[in-house]
Amino acid sequence: MTGYANASAAPVSRPAAALHERGGELHSGAPAAPAIGVELRSVNGRFLDIGLRLPDEYRSLEPALRELLTARFKRGKIELRLTGAGESESANVEPLPEQLAHLGQIESRVRELLPNARPLSVHEALQWCRGAARSGGAAEVVLEVARRCVEGLVAARAQEGARLAAILLERVEHLRGLAAAAEPLVPAAVARQQQRFVERWNDALVTTGAAQSISREATQERALNEAAAYAIRIDVAEELARLRSHLDEIARLLAKGGEVGKRLEFLIQELLREANTLGSKSTSIEMTAISVEMKVAIEQLREQIQNVE
Questions:
Q1: What end-to-end distance do the CA atoms of the chain give, in Å?
Q2: Phi, psi angle pair for 9, to nearest 5°
Q3: CB 3.0-4.6 Å disulfide test: which of 17, 39, 56, 101 passes with 28?
């Protein structure tokens, strides 16, 4: 099922910076421009296919992000794209005193073991503080943004699902109409076959000269027997009853919602089987046309149902 959602947040660059929501996005007291963004795109697919596009510094979050997606989605090709804070966005991050103190302690321990090591430059200290600012609390922010983005995609897919359900119900009603049109064709075909048999039987009696030896009642009885046997061979009442039952179940599942894709696919197979039987028992152009139109409508259902989760 298709859908798109995005969410963004600013990274936690100071311990006191708390996340707050504004306009559907997450913000912190640090940079004004959003630095962490999550995009989710979903397209149709029979199975769940997840693709992640993550910056190198967030590769460790891949298992958690996959678990987040598999918990909410069962079908479709879903692509998650994560964008992290660039150098331009983090260039103005001011080092915190505790960061510099911690860095000084690390440098002192290194100088004790390596007396000839050169001191850290201002540029190197700033680079280290920027990296610490991006990593501190970034995982929590990314996962929180991803959760909000997932909820947005769920809502988008729900809207798409409602439109898809309406389309499927239209196809179901179309199939009901075809079944109703096919039902009176069988008695008419039996009546035509009975009349045809009587005519041919009388012609044969006249040709052979046996018309005087066989009564009209016997001829009519034989015609009725032949018509009854013919009606049994072409009767499609059971097929139409099963077809209506499958259509009722499809309508019920669509109204129920939830994870019904697999059950709908099974019902589509059964519908196609009944339509094929109608075609094989067809004795008129009208019945053949109805069977073909049913197969077309069922194939359209099949294509759409592959998008249902």
A1: 7
A2: -155, 160
A3: 17
Q: Are residues 141 and 24 in the same domain?
A: yes
Alpha helices (runs of H) in the chain, residue ranges in sequence order: 62-70, 87-90, 97-113, 122-135, 138-182, 185-208, 216-234, 237-256, 261-280, 285-305
Do the beta carbons of residue 38 and residue 25 sit within 8 Å?
A: no
Residues 7 and 63 in one domain: yes
Last residue within a domain, chosen from 110, 126, 159: 159
Domain count of the fold of the chain: 2
- Classify residue 30 by burial, with Cβ atoms within 10 Å: 0-12, 13-18, 19+: buried
Is 66 found in the same domain as 201? no
Residue among 170, 176, 163 nearest 248 (CA) = 176
- Could you tell me if 26 and 151 are in contact, meaning their C-beta atoms sit under 8 angstroms apart? no
The per-residue pLDDT for 80 is 92
Same domain, 214 and 68: no
Q: Does the residue 105 lie in any domain?
A: no
In a domain, residue 177? The reply is: no
Distance from the Cα of residue 76 to its chain's centroid: 5
Distance CA 125, CA 96 (A): 11
Q: Which residues contact 93 (CB under 8 A, 6 or more apart)?
A: 13, 30, 31, 129, 130, 133
State the Cα–Cα distance between residues 115 and 4, nearest whole angstrom. Answer: 56
> Residue-wise pLDDT tens for the chain (309 aa)?
678 888 888 654 444 333 444 444 444 444 444 468 899 998 877 778 889 998 877 788 888 999 999 988 887 888 999 887 544 444 455 677 777 788 888 888 888 888 888 888 887 877 776 665 555 557 788 888 899 999 998 888 888 878 888 888 888 999 999 888 888 777 776 667 666 776 776 676 667 665 566 666 666 666 667 666 666 666 677 788 888 888 999 888 888 877 777 788 888 888 888 888 887 777 778 888 888 998 998 988 888 877 676
Question: How far, rounded to the nearest angstrom, does the alpha carbon of residue 176 sit from its chain's CA centroid?
Answer: 25
